[in-house]
Design a protein that fits this description.
The chain is of the alpha/beta class. It contains 18 helices and twelve strands. Helix 10 runs parallel beside helix 12 and helix 14 crosses helix 15. The two termini are 21 Å apart.
Length: 431
């Protein structure tokens, strides 16, 4: 990288533009661009990183970075910095640091696994797979590395490698049994879709089912062919979009004897549960203080708004229980994947939330107040909506959805999968 790039970042820092400075640093020094930076230049980049960390109140991270600036070939300090960067939410930068650490230590299970962790967090699954592929001897003696090899193969669309590697793995602990169960779940669900789902780089619904065990009922038409492939980046949600999701939920629940609707704590969940209750003609019952919400339908607006203690109560899929989330994030993991989700997003604003609008008199952007009406009134507006218009439904591929439903629905009782971030279908995202 040129001196001009370093000078530009230093100037942004001096002007107090910390976020802009970090964005530029991450683009140039983060994975994979950072691999091209020469050894002599690395301390200068890490010096800027240390300055940014100090300015943002991350004193310990700044101190670790300063130590690496002083001794950039110390693998222990590089490893410590990489670990701290993952913890600070900068996995792409961490990957560059850990890749340099690995180049110094050679065959190290600890460093390889930490680099793979950084790459997974950056949604760079093919690169994580490639790192593990290069260390065959390490895989041969490490259960964890073989598991990660199989997992990242699946997340890269290489289920043949996952299947072959799983056959070599034997669990010695309950934790390892769970890990093997994750891989076996991928393969079993892929087998269910054999012949009806392409499972290629464009098959978002198919891969969503294979990786999470859930049904995705709506695909975004924006940038469908390239670069989003059915996911949303930023979304200002609408009553119409929710209405379309509820219509598809109603079709999926036909013939299933549901007793009630549960709404976890939260205004968005309350609104969706109210709408689902009216749509399906089911009573809403109080969210249980203890125990599990079953049998019945658990209705969520945004999966990421579910409290951690409530997520754990949904890990087991009970008989006659369905978890429905209108919106689920695709750039971060969740401990539980909904059985049905309408859409996948990176950033979302609910229709009843505060939004930014243009004042027609001044042409200035200003915040509009949130809709604070009672939940049942907003639910009525949702149900009155005719749903999305034809232009919003251009990417639906309903024949493929129906084929997946015919093979996979209803879901069997058992443990719900995690909702894994990313996957074999690529989408652009804000960073």
């Amino acid at each position: 990288m040129s001196d001009d790039d370093l000078a530009a970042i230093a100037q942004l820092i001096s002007q107090g533009e910390d976020q802009a400075a970090f964005t530029r640093l991450r683009t140039a020094f983060g994975w994979p661009a950072g691999k091209a930076i020469g050894d002599a230049e690395v301390p200068r980049w890490l010096g800027l990183l240390a300055d940014l960390a100090a300015r943002r109140g991350a004193g310990p991270l700044s101190e670790i970075a300063v130590d690496v600036v002083r001794d950039p070939d110390n693998p222990d300090q590089l490893f410590e910095l990489g670990y701290a960067l993952i913890d600070a939410g900068a996995p792409a930068v961490a990957a560059t640091v850990l890749w340099r650490c690995l180049s110094l230590v050679g065959e190290s299970e600890e460093v390889v696994c930490e680099l793979v962790s950084a790459l997974e967090s950056a949604l760079a699954y093919p690169d994580a797979f490639a790192v593990l592929h290069e260390h065959a001897a390490l895989r041969g003696r490490s259960f964890l590395c073989r598991y990660l090899y199989a997992f990242n193969a699946a997340m890269s669309g290489k289920l043949d490698v996952t299947r072959e590697t799983l056959s070599t793995l034997e669990a010695a602990t309950p934790e390892e049994e769970t890990m093997l169960g994750t891989l076996a779940g991928f393969l079993a669900r892929a087998d269910k879709l054999a012949g009806v789902s392409a499972l290629d780089v464009n098959d978002l619904r198919g891969w969503h089912f294979v990786l999470t065990g859930g049904i995705l009922t709506h695909q975004s038409p924006y940038g469908f062919d390239e670069p989003m492939h059915g996911r949303y980046a930023w979304l200002g949600d609408s009553h119409a979009r929710i209405a379309t999701g509820l219509e598809r939920l109603a079709k999926l629940t036909r013939g299933i004897q549901l007793e009630c609707v549960y709404a976890p704590p939260g205004r968005g969940h309350e609104i969706i549960a109210c709408a689902v209750s009216k749509k399906l003609a089911l009573p809403i019952v109080p969210w249980p203080a203890v125990g599990v919400p079953a049998p019945g339908l658990v209705a969520l607006y945004d999966l990421s708004d579910l409290a951690p203690n409530d997520i754990t109560r949904l890990q087991a899929r009970r008989p006659d229980q369905i978890v429905f989330a209108h919106a689920s994030p695709w750039t971060e993991d969740s401990p539980v994947a909904p059985d049905i989700t309408t859409l996948l997003y990176q950033s979302i604003v609910a229709p009843w939330g505060e939004t930014m609008v243009v004042n027609p008199e001044t042409n200035e952007v200003q915040a509009s107040p949130p809709d604070e009406r009672p939940a049942d009134q907003i639910a009525e507006d949702i149900l009155k909506s005719p749903g999305l218009d034809a232009s919003e439904l251009e990417a639906e591929q309903l024949d493929r959805l129906e084929a997946i439903i015919a093979r996979a629905w209803p879901l069997e009782p058992g443990n719900r999968s995690r909702l894994w971030a990313g996957g074999p279908v690529p989408s652009n995202r804000f960073t």
